[in-house]
């Protein structure tokens, strides 16, 4: 990488588990949409996939379909398990019907109270392969439908949020900022002041109490010896980690700003570097909150809803 400014502190904006690296002419300058994108960690409710009774499959093949479908959903970051439902579980109910020489799989998402909230038909599968319990045909059906079922669940959640006046679709997120620790020089204070100035907007506001917050943000700064550098300039590696913690204590995400700098170049005043770093981090924290809460998701389209879709489960 090349560094052109005296601060010699370009930033890479990361969001776990994604990573990227960009060379930028300004310290903490905007790295663009690709590096700024964040892992979507929106937590759906637990979804169980019971063995389907009306599947046109043998018991063994039906159990395989349930396992394959659960695995496909896990690949979409849905916490799905192939088992019989317990109280509080959402259920992916699967059936199949014959249409000529093909079998049509059907999928429905059912709330813990038993209300069906959305449904979808899968792609036709040759009836001969399906009735024979061909593992590859079953695997392919689950592989194709996993992303669509996950999207259906996301749309259902979005519809529920849209109907809830207390959801983050309907009000600003309340965020408690727990400060900055570990920065050299005046970094703890300078970064904190800059973040407090940069973060609030129409969709996110800072609150003075952790107990009233939807999310808590804390920045941890780590400085370690870096490469020897060139022309007699030793280096340090500095990393800013902006942890965003949900009200239940789980980590919604982390925006990470790492780089190598001239050793001790930030041991005194951070100056404009703090302002630019905090502004960039503020945008990252907002995106983490949006991704984790699902407030940007679109409700399920009308053609995927069922009659009870407007009722909370």
UniProtKB/TrEMBL annotation:
Keywords: Signal. Residues 1-29 form the signal peptide. The keyword Signal applies. It comes from the Bacteria. Residues 292-313 are annotated as: Disordered. This is Lipoprotein.
């Amino acid at each position: 990488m090349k560094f052109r400014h005296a601060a010699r502190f370009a930033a890479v904006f990361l969001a776990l588990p994604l990573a990227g690296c960009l060379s930028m002419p300004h310290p903490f300058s905007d790295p663009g949409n690709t590096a700024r994108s964040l892992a979507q960690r929106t937590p759906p409710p637990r979804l169980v996939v019971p063995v389907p009774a009306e599947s046109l499959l043998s018991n063994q093949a039906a159990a395989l379909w349930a396992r394959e479908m659960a695995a496909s959903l896990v690949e979409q970051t849905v916490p799905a398990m192939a088992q019989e439902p317990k109280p509080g579980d959402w259920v992916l109910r699967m059936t199949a019907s014959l249409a000529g020489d093909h079998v049509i799989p059907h999928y429905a998402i059912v709330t813990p109270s038993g209300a069906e909230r959305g449904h979808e038909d899968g792609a036709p599968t040759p009836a001969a392969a399906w009735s024979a319990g061909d593992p590859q045909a079953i695997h392919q059906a689950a592989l194709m439908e996993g992303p669509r079922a996950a999207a259906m669940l996301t749309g259902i959640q979005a519809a529920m949020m849209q109907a809830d006046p207390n959801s983050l679709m309907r009000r600003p997120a309340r965020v408690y900022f727990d400060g900055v620790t570990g920065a050299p020089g005046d970094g703890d204070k300078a970064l904190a002041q800059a973040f407090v100035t940069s973060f609030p907007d129409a969709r996110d506001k800072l609150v003075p109490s952790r107990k009233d917050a939807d999310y808590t943000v804390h920045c941890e700064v780590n400085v370690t010896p870096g490469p020897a550098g060139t022309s007699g300039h030793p280096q340090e590696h500095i990393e800013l980690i902006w942890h965003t913690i949900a009200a239940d204590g789980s980590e919604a995400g982390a925006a990470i700003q790492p780089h190598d700098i001239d050793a001790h170049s930030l041991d005194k005043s951070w100056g404009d570097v703090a302002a630019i770093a905090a502004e960039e981090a503020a945008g990252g924290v907002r995106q983490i909150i949006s991704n984790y809460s699902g407030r940007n998701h679109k409700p399920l389209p009308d053609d995927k809803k069922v009659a009870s879709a407007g009722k909370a489960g």
